[in-house]
From TrEMBL:
Keyword hit for NAD: yes
Domain NAD(P)-binding: 5-330
GO biological process: nucleotide-sugar metabolic process
This protein's name: dTDP-glucose 4,6-dehydratase
Class of enzymatic activity (EC top level): lyase
GO molecular function: dTDP-glucose 4,6-dehydratase activity
Pfam families the record matches: GDP_Man_Dehyd
Amino acid sequence: MRTYLVTGGAGFIGSNYIHYMFRKYGDQIRIINVDKLTYAGNLENLKDIEDRDNYTFIRADICDSEAISKIFEENDIERVVHFAAESHVDRSIKNPEVFVKTNVLGTLVMLNAAKAAWELPDGSFKPDHKFLHVSTDEVYGSLEEDGGYFYETTPYAPHSPYSASKASSDMLVKAYMDTYHFPANITNCSNNYGPYQFPEKLIPLIINNALHGKKLPVYGDGKNVRDWLFVEDHCKGIDMVQEKGRLFETYNIGGHNERQNIQIIHIILDTLREMLSDSDPRRALVSDDLITYVEDRKGHDRRYAIAPDKIKAEVGWYPETKFEDGIRKTIAWYFEHEDWMKNVTSGDYQKYYEDMYSGR
Ligand code: NAD
Ligand code: TYD
């Protein structure tokens, strides 16, 4: 039975990935999930799989090299899928330090622990042991409104503290591959949306605010473009890259679903109106009048877009879920998980929201 070490598995993409992997491989794999449980980590996301015999949760900080090394010493980890990170651009603008700690130093700890466990006396590595570093297309910087796509060959030009820290972590993974021939891949993915996403990110924030008749904050002119990918398609891409991709290669994941933020907001409002029955009291709260233009994000990247040519040609992956279907599935999930949303928006979230939006 192959053992996976997943970091950040209690977060948005990590928890979707764990669900995806158990759906796909069932009892053929074992997953150890290591997560510090920051504000973004939530064991509620994994309630339905927590009792499986082939699943283990370990609460640990990826910056804690002793704790991480111990996991490698006690288990024959054959696959690492490294999600754990601070992931929100706005928070990185307010407090960059923790981004460098977790995203850069934490990745270094993960690389060192895997290298120590997998390296053989002759400097080669145990066969079929692999590390996948999950990264973002934001490392490539910003595209012009009408100008081209990000490719794996696009030079790195990060702007935010978040993307700079992810770029640094990518560079460390590349350095380990180049220096030690460390068996790894990097994936750089576009913006994800779907179940379990924390409502600091655009799509769940807009869904939640609209359902409560709260203002929908649009940064700047609302015309910044993101290339949205349904999270399950990303999870599938990660697995396909790790099993079918060429080792040491980078693959961009995303593709051809570019939307302006303001378009996203209108699609969400229209879909909510379609999906809520007339008798549902939330229906009356959903209104275009909630749209509020606010002060722009500092250093706001204008456009991200991926042409997924390499992953399609080499691995056979393509984005399967149409946005209209993905957004309906996402909204349906939030309808069915009102308690989840209530729990994550109580307490600290109120203070976060106040800090982030009251001055705008
Ligand atoms: P998230 O913020 O929802 O989850 C991050 C998880 O990491 C949380 O469970 C958190 O508790 C955990 N974590 C944070 N610091 C930790 C530490 N020091 N030690 C151990 N665990 C820690 O993030 P996400 O949106 O699921 O993103 C996952 C990964 O995918 C990140 O590396 C991110 O850069 C990358 N990514 C995200 C997107 C996106 O649209 N969300 C797109 C491309 C790439
Ligand atoms: P976000 O979900 O934070 O992802 P990222 O910054 O990593 O792309 O933001 C997506 C886009 O939505 C980005 O252009 C910023 C914008 N945005 C708003 O206009 N209002 C908001 O309240 C948030 C959170 C984001």
